[in-house]
Write a structure and sequence with these properties.
About 15% of the residues have low confidence. Helix 11 packs antiparallel against helix 12. This protein has a three-stranded antiparallel β-sheet. It has a two-stranded antiparallel sheet with strand order 4-5. The protein is mainly α. Helix content is about 55%, strand content about 5%.
Amino acid sequence: MNLRNFWERGGFKVLAVARLGSCSYSLVFYILNCYAAGIDEIVSSTVELSILLGVPERQVKLAVEELSESNILSVTKKHEKTLVLKMNLDPEKWKNLRSTPEPNKRILGDAKNLHSLIPQKKINSKVRPVKVSLSSEEALIFPKKMESKNKKMNENNKILDEDVNKILDIFGKYHKEKIDLNKETNFAKLLLENHPTDQIISLIQFFSKEIPSLSMLVGAWFHYMNKYREETSEVDDLNAFRKKHEVFDEKIRNLASFELKKIQKEKKNISADEELLLHILIRHEQPRKQLYWALKARERYPSLKVFLDRAKDSVNLN
């Protein structure tokens, strides 16, 4: 069922008398707008929806519960906090609608029993569904509307730009089954209107098994972006730690090399152990660790006392 059928069956009229909570109405119209944009379902969380709708998370949870109980929304929990929301566009399947938002007030009953309250247009079952499109002024809530059919047909004849091709190529590698190139191309362009190419590619690669279509990535961008940041933060911290120690190791190598050249130039007498230590610090894979053990036995290197203190201070070694 499409939005045209939904309208002809009195879906908006049923919503008007259902007396849902304000947050429930906001959520319903957001999801309807997604549907008009070609996104059948959205993947999000109550936290993200609360930020998007500008209401406390508790209200979002109550709204999701209310809409789910009324069969207006199909709600599936994909992970612990992840919700997959889909609109039920057949108003006759809605149930437990109330005359007021308060639970103890009069029950209107199932939507299919509201025909006496709401004038219904006679539906011709053979009428061919008409695709609904919204103007940019009407599509006030993200995601943006899809372009009109005629414009799509014209654009399909043009050469795809480099970024779109790159996204489609990478997405195609993870989905060997045949994909709808025209559909995915439009969603790739929609992604590029709002997000950098590198971010899009990173999410596709990271969530290759969780994103079956680019439309899902469009509808749940912030969900996947936040999840990506959470799961990669530990890796970033580890990389930063390694980078810091690589800098320290290189600093020790440079100090040891400078000290050895200085000793050779001034022709100072040092012991075999002291000379060996300098060579180890220059060539070892982990000179900072070797410096640590040298400091533990610094009495063996009396001629390198100043060097050891300077090296210790330069790499914050306690």
